[in-house]
Structures are given as C-alpha cells and as structure tokens.
Amino acid sequence: MNRFMYKSLSQLKYLLAGLVFGVIFVKAEVISWFRIQEMFRLQSFHMYGVIGSAVLVGMLSVWLIKKFNIKTIQGETVTFQARQFNRGQIYGGLIFGLGWAVTGACPGPLFAQIGTGATVIVITLLSAIAGTWVYGKFREKLPH
C-alpha cells in the first residue's frame, strides 16, 4: 500500500467521527434555525440544556484527565495552561453571538446543516471563512 493510500485510510476515522457528530446534531435538533431562535428569544430551554450538558461533560472530562493523569493516544501528557481574561473576548463573544442569532448557525453544525439540504448555509460558511481570514489579517491590531 502506498503512503498516500495509508494516510487517506488513517484519516477515515475523522470523517466517520464527523458523520456521527453530524447525525447527533441533526437528531438533537441543535442545527434547527427555529431552536436557535427560541434560545435567543428565551422561549425554550432545549438549547441551553444541550449546551449546559456539553459544558458539564467537558468539566468532568478535564477533571478526570487531571485526576488520573490520562495521556494522549501517543502517550503524551495532557497539559492545561491558564488563560488570562481580556476585553477582546467580550468583543469576540458579542460578534460571535450576533452572527449566531442572525444566521441561526454556529460554526460547529454548519456542515450538518448543509448536509440536510439547507444549502443557503454555504453563504454562512463562506462568511465564517472570511471572518477567520479578517481576524488573522488584523490579529496583531486587535485587543487581546
């Protein structure tokens, strides 16, 4: 088997994980524009429950990694670095939330939305890519 073929097959696990993650997003209705609008209008607990569950799972995972000194698949130690809070996070969070509320799409489920046939989300995907480029271009001039 040549190197390219081996590399492609080793990357297949990421495609499969993405497909499973996308199906979960669709079944949990977290890609639904209506569910997202309900959340931003404070009309439903559904999305807050999903996000809260994800935060709790993340907290539990970090605690378990630290408590049992769990290593990566390659055997490397997992380290966590303290981050300093700054005002740029507030600006970024507001821009992110505004974009999420207007488009009904968070970057995570964009591909799942496109996969369900909501092809108009391609515009949101291109906008997210453009926003990432703009951030990279002006990163040094932005408040961090």
Structure summarized in a few sentences:
With 144 residues, this protein is mostly helical.
Written description of the protein model:
There is one protein chain. With 144 residues, the chain is an all-alpha fold. The N and C termini lie far apart (47 Å). The chain is built from six helices and no strands. The longest helix is centred in the N-terminal third of the chain and has 25 residues, at 3-27. It has a domain at 83-143. Keywords: Membrane, Transmembrane, Transmembrane helix. The chain crosses the membrane at residues 12-34, 46-65, 90-112, 118-136. InterPro entries: DUF6691.
Order of helices and strands: HHHHHH
Indicate the radius of gyration in whole angstroms.
19 Å
Largest sheet: none
Shape: globular
Strand content: under 5%
Structural class: mainly alpha
Helix content bin: 55-70%
Distance between the termini: 47 Å
Instruction: Let me know the number of strands.
Output: 0
Total count of helical runs of at least 4 residues: 6
- Enumerate the spans where pLDDT stays under 50 for 5 or more consecutive residues: none
Mean pLDDT: 88
Keyphrases for this structure?
single chain; 144 residues; mainly alpha; 6 helices; 67% helix; transmembrane; DUF6691; membrane; transmembrane helix
Helix-strand layout with pairing:
Elements: H1 3-27, H2 33-40, H3 46-67, H4 87-103, H5 110-115, H6 121-138
